[in-house]
Amino acid sequence: MGKRTHYTAEFKAKVAIAALKEQETLSELVHRFGVSAMTISKWKQEFLNGSSKVFEGARSAEKEDSEEEIQKLHATIGRLTVERDFLADACKRAGLKKK
Questions:
Q1: What GO biological process term is on the record, naming one (predicted)?
Q2: Which residues are CB-contacts of 88 (< 8 A; sequence separation ≥ 6)?
Q3: In the predicted model, is pLDDT for residue 98 greater than 70?
Q4: Domain span at residue 28?
Q5: pTM of the predicted structure, to 2 decimals
Q6: Are 13 and 47 in contact, with CB atoms under 8 Å apart?
Q7: pLDDT digits (tens, 9 = 90+) for 23-77
Q8: Is residue 99 part of a domain?
Q9: Do residues 37 and 25 make contact, with C-beta atoms less than 8 angstroms apart?
Q10: 53, 61 in Cβ contact below 8 A?
């Protein structure tokens, strides 16, 4: 039984894009990349079916980044509020601030 070759996602995308460009025939792509015609056709179809996820992923990543940033900012606000209250109380006790 033959050995199975595992291709990287980058390589699959490169082959699929070359197939989509249609600048070379399928047999030329087979020779160029050393992958069967059936595999190239399969990768091309997978690429087309998953292409919308590229744009969804960007929004998800942006949303995740902004939520992470909001959490950090809330933590900073909380820390600064505690520090301000502590310093205001210390100033009152030292007689440096009225009220």
A1: DNA transposition
A2: 97
A3: no
A4: 9-94
A5: 0.54
A6: yes
A7: 999 999 999 999 999 999 999 999 999 888 777 766 666 777 788 899 999 999 9
A8: no
A9: no
A10: no
> Which tokens hold the place of 1?
């039984």
Q: At 73, which helix (H) or strand (E)?
A: helix 37-94
Q: Which two tokens stand for residue 65?
A: 């980044």
Distance CA 38, CA 34 (A): 12
Token pair recorded at residue 92: 């009152």
**Has residue 1 been placed in a domain?**
no
Under 8 Å between Cβ of 39 and 50: no
| Per-residue pLDDT reduced to its tens digit, 2-27 | 677 889 999 999 999 999 999 999 99
Counted domains in the chain: 1
In a domain, 41, yes or no: yes
4 belongs to a structural domain: no
